[in-house]
Write a structure and sequence with these properties.
The chain is α+β, with helices and mostly antiparallel strands and about 450 residues long. The protein is built from 17 helices and eight strands.
Length: about 450
């Protein structure tokens, strides 16, 4: 028979029952049913017989052989016995010992190779002290928001991007990267969980969501808490940097809402579509408020869901219309100066600690139009030193005013004029720039 037995008992009756239990026909079927083998002594139920048989003998299936050495494999129950010859998925015990040894050697070699590349990577990471007094306004504000999101972990320990979910409504990794690029946060590979850094085809690969960061050391002999306290009394003046940070935050706020609405309406946008929409919304947020952008998102995602229900539209085709719909909708609003409704902040989407700081320090929130945000933040900038500048020439001034009257663009011209002045351009240079911007190509 295909099952060979190695007896572990000297009891003749137990041996005989073990042989009957494993006896098979030439077709690979068991000759007797287990239920017909009981009762036997104090064994009354067929369900417990297999355990007793394993105590009486070891069974080796000639139809099941080790894929490495060809030895026949031990089987513990009838269900594991094979009707036809085949290779075992697992090795035999002897080959398993050899395989385990090979695995340990391979793992040791891989660990050594990883250590070589990881040590080289760590060696090029920054480790110098920085001067927190020299932080830019946007970096300082973001650092305070991160401290509020992590306190006390930011000053007392280490953290990962996944620990920063309360910093912003979405894309926390983008904001952490800003501080890493600014040299405020430091990557600490030795504190990361196993598997964060690994080799793929001989190259070091990093699971960025698992990277561990700590606060960079300060040049001044102060505790980290004192460093952060000093930032609380900061006088902000770099309105352009703060406005760019606001646009990043507002875009994250809008994209979080977009992701939720797409999930609700079963739209599966790919990464490139999300990036396209993020770029469009960031531009729209220079004029409109976050709550108005939420309305635009809701309207266009809902319209795409309606398209998906039409017989000549697939779900994927309807989803693909969303980036273009949002872009064209914002262009139409801008062109026609359409009033856009404001949506309330969803209960599931808090502004995060960065949003709270913008509100507390500058009175800016999701209902503040982007143009007003720009005006408030750039108003923090010191006045440009043009007191001694000579008055502009009469001709360019006349041309600028005539063009504004002729094309009925007076408000837009004045807004752009004020913007350029706040950015530090002189009056004459501003007039020249406006004339150049409004020039008709070919004239």
């Amino acid at each position: 028979m295909p099952i060979k037995l190695e007896m572990l008992t000297s009891d003749p009756e137990e041996k005989a029952l073990a042989v009957r239990y494993w006896a098979m026909t030439e077709d690979g079927e068991f000759k007797e049913k287990v239920i017909d083998l009981v009762p036997f002594r104090d064994i009354a139920h067929s369900g417990s017989l297999a355990g007793h048989v394993r105590e009486w003998c070891r069974a080796f299936d000639e139809n099941l052989t080790c894929r490495y050495c060809g030895a026949i494999m031990e089987v513990k129950s009838r269900s594991l016995a094979k009707k036809f010859p085949q290779k075992s998925i697992r090795p035999c015990p002897a080959c398993q010992v050899l395989q385990d040894q090979k695995d340990r050697e391979a793992q040791a070699a891989a660990t050594a190779a990883l250590d070589v590349q990881l040590n080289a990577y760590i060696a090029q990471l920054p480790n110098h002290e920085i001067d927190y007094a020299q932080l830019k306004d946007d970096q300082a504000l973001l650092l305070l928001a991160l401290n509020a999101a992590l306190s006390p972990r930011l000053t007392d320990g280490a953290f990962t991007v996944d620990d920063c979910t309360s910093l912003v409504p979405a894309d926390a990794d983008r904001f952490i990267e800003r501080l890493v690029t600014a040299d405020v946060l430091r990557e600490v590979p030795r504190l990361a969980a196993p598997g964060t850094y690994f080799l793929l085809d001989g190259h070091l690969v990093i699971r960025t969501r698992q990277v561990v960061y700590t606060l960079a050391p300060d040049r001044q002999p102060e505790a980290s808490t004192a460093i952060l306290r000093s930032q609380l009394d900061r006088e902000y003046s770099d309105g352009l940097a703060l406005f760019n940070l606001w646009l990043d935050f507002a875009s994250a706020d809008a994209m979080s809402y977009l992701a939720d609405k797409c999930s609700a309406f079963d739209h599966d946008l790919d990464a490139s579509q999300f990036d396209e929409i993020r770029s469009t919304l960031r531009e729209g947020l220079k004029t409109h408020s976050v709550s108005q952008i939420w309305y635009v998102i809701w309207k266009n995602v809902k319209d795409a869901a309606s398209l998906a229900r039409m017989v000549y539209y697939s779900e994927a085709r309807a989803t693909a219309t969303i980036p273009g719909k949002i872009r064209r909708n914002l262009e139409k609003i801008e062109k026609q100066s359409t009033d856009v409704p404001k949506w309330d902040r969803p209960n599931y989407q808090p502004a995060g600690t960065l949003g709270m700081l913008f509100s507390d320090l500058f009175g800016i929130d999701e209902d503040t139009p982007g143009a007003d945000v720009y005006a408030r933040l750039t108003a923090l900038m010191p006045a440009p030193p043009f007191a001694d500048e000579a008055p502009p020439e009469n001709g360019p001034v006349k041309r600028l005013l005539c063009d504004a009257l002729l094309h009925d663009t007076g408000p837009q011209m004045l807004h752009r004029f004020a913007t350029l002045i706040r950015e530090g351009h002189g009056v004459s240079a501003t007039i020249a720039k406006l004339l150049h911007e409004d020039a008709i190509p070919g004239t």
